[in-house]
Amino acid sequence: MTTYSRKTLSTLAAIITMALLTACNHKPHDEKQVNELPSIFPDYVGVTIPSDIAPLNFSVNDAGRVDVTVTGSNGETLHANGPYARFNIDEWHRLLRNNQGSNINVRVCARQDDGTWVSYRTFSIAVSSTPLGEWGLTYRRVAPGYVNYSSMGLYQRCLADYEEKAIFENTAIEGGCINCHSSNRTDPRQFTFHVRGSHGATLLQTDGQRLWLDTKTDKTLGTCVYPYWHPTGRYVAFSTNRTNQAFHGINDRRVEVFDHASDLQVYDVENHRLLISPLIKTPDWMETYPSFSPDGRTLYFCTSRQYDDIGNHFRDIRYNICAISFNPDNGTFGQQVDTLFNAEAIGKSAVHPRPSYDGRHLLFTLCDYGCFSIWHKESDQWMMDLQNRQTWPLTATNSPRAESYHNWSINSRWIVFTSRRENGLNSLLYIAAIDSTGHAAKPFLLPQRNPREYYDRATWSFNTPDFTLSPVNFNWQKGRRETLSDKRTKITAEIME
To answer: CA distances (Å), 421 to each of 167, 297, 378, in order?
Structure first.
């Protein structure tokens, strides 16, 4: 057996390391220049991003290797070389901080199948002067099936890097469905979600203290869903819905989900009672998707005519966006309902109203009919100016496929929403900048460490996303025991005449 001295071994190790580094960091020489943009995944060409977002790693379609240089306005550069563009997180964040309010320029070279290198036209990414100001996102992740829940749950993701963590999964509670989560103005110190199934309950967590509610009463249709916190934290608006699911036989749509009854109520956190106005619990109309204005004095919601034979009229279900005043001092409602957007008049349905936290705009989804827009490929994002009620489509965020669930960042300059634009099957998460006039920049797909590998292997859909100022502090082991114990706080309901 041949023996080597320690010095010789060190020299050999250094030579091997240098050879590997050289192979991994091979840069193209005499590459062919083409006057076209690279075809990359995800499509980050021309997007607007915040300075506190994770690196926008990407791959070049039909390329075996890439060499990418990102240059800031002051000449600072960032380099990536390998099977795909993967940037150092610390260097990426430093580059973005130094270029807030400016552009970074991306030069892409890609090696073709024949071994030649092609250099593409440089493209720009705008770095907004306004950061996200949020720690991350919360969302539900579920397999895109139609019959059973499979494995699903609520998750949280840090936006400065790629770390994802489960908040609560249905495998912890013998299956069932976990949905309808919400925090108060993106602050998870006040957090709620709903559990459906044999151990059904509504969680209300405040500063780590958990309360499991039985929200079904003799004055309501069923349990409370679709929550939205009052900014004071004293109230939570809910809807109660009787929902049906049907399947298309000959159609490019796979499934139809619709309500055949729904009402609204506001939960009084301190007194464990539901406050109900006859104006938002009507026999001939269906009210759903509540949200409070930032000052807490207006309750927005959607409403549609109710049909007895809904199976033959599901395409006639069209929701308008309405509002009723609310007095948080005593929990009373106004005496009239105001229609903000009459979608029925233009043959459309408007759902998911979400006001910006600065009170200036209202984001909603417009589709042909119904309230489950995530299944309708024509669903688009629309914006309303709450000062003059003018509306317009967010053209930059929309695609030929379904855009749906959405929410605002706390500074009202960013939105997160779902879209099926990638393959028509999975709903994925996109983030877009919104300017002071309520118009959007080109959105970007949620970054991943290796996006091609991640999204190609993804067999789930994301929905109901929201920003979060800090990680959600939920003890799933205690939550599991408490859910399975079936110990619930019973609430009452009061109709406010």
So the answer is: 27, 37, 11
